[in-house]
Design brief:
By secondary structure, this protein is α/β, with parallel strands linked by helices. It has one domain: P-loop containing nucleotide triphosphate hydrolases (Rossmann fold). The relative contact order is 0.19. The longest helix is centred in the C-terminal third of the chain and has 16 residues. The strands form 2 sheets. The protein has a 6-stranded mixed sheet, sandwiched between helices. The chain is globular and about 45 Å long. It has 10 helices and 10 strands. The protein binds adenosine-5'-triphosphate and magnesium ion. The site of magnesium ion (MG) has 5 residues, from helix 1.
């Protein structure tokens, strides 16, 4: 579904990504793990049209999308649930969810709103409340619900567990697993390697703008380099 080939990108005169390649097959959950500053979000910015690609290619469903503006990439079926959630704090929960569907022309948005509020009952309870008044975990659920409102084929999550209590991290993990079960393909970026590798069919370890290890979630979890540096034992 998604093929990234020898991608280079950066900011100003600095290259951050030094030619990375990875793939996401339809129906999979693929994870990119790695430390602070490794270049994970930079890679996602390239995939979603927020940062120009300097070299290499991004193919989605066989067609090149590198160079397309963000809104066209969303129309192709890629939506990102961004780092830090980026909800609209002064809009209501309901309005935030509706924003996620702004590219759609079909008439089933109401059906999907109901579906989101069934999936996240707390969003129904707080539908009219300003989104900025939600707790961190509730804001994450809102950001996920908003992303799903575009009916993405590929949903990208950038550090969904960041700043959340362990119990909520577990809920976020269960939510992502459920989304995968509905047939949405997932690309998950995490510093929380334990959570991400537990969910992943395929995983890649990023270090300083390069992919240094790849394998199934289980394989990476068992790899000494990963368990020593990223799993805390
Ligand atoms: N807008 C920017 N301008 C200049 N440099 C940037 C910018 N955004 C990120 N960087 C730099 O690019 C490098 C990679 O950052 P990136 O955000 O991709 O890392 P990351 O793997 O997502 O890290 P984290 O896990 O902390 O989110 C870092 O050295 C960072 O300082
Ligand atoms: Mg990041």
């Amino acid at each position: 579904m998604l093929k990234v080939e020898n991608l280079r990108a950066g900011y100003g005169k600095t290259d951050i990504l030094h030619g990375i390649s990875f793939e996401v097959h339809a129906g999979q959950c693929v994870t990119l793990i790695g430390a602070n500053g490794a270049g994970k979000s930079t890679a996602l910015r390239c995939l979603t049209g927020l940062l120009p690609v300097r070299c290499g290619k991004v193919l989605f469903e066989g067609e090149e999308i590198s160079g397309l503006p963000g809104h066209k990439i969303v129309r192709r079926g890629i939506t990102m649930c961004p780092e830090g959630r980026q909800i609209f704090p002064e809009m209501s929960v309901l309005e935030n969810l509706k924003m996620g569907a702004h590219i759609r022309r079909d008439s089933e948005q109401q059906v999907d709103l109901e579906r989101m509020m069934d999936m996240f009952p707390v969003l129904r309870k707080r539908a009219m409340q300003m989104a900025g008044t939600l707790s961190g975990g509730e804001q994450e659920m809102l950001a996920i619900g908003r992303a799903l409102m575009s009916r993405p084929k590929l949903c990208i999550f950038d550090e969904p567990s960041l700043g959340l209590a362990p119990k909520i991290v577990q809920e976020v993990g269960e939510t992502i697993a459920r989304i995968k079960e509905t047939g949405t393909t997932i690309l998950l970026v995490e510093q929380n390697a334990r959570m991400a590798l537990g969910l992943a069919d395929q995983a890649y370890l990023f270090e300083a703008g390069e992919i240094v290890l790849r394998g199934t979630g289980k394989e990476l979890m068992a790899h000494p380099e990963v368990s020593n540096a990223y799993l805390g034992h």
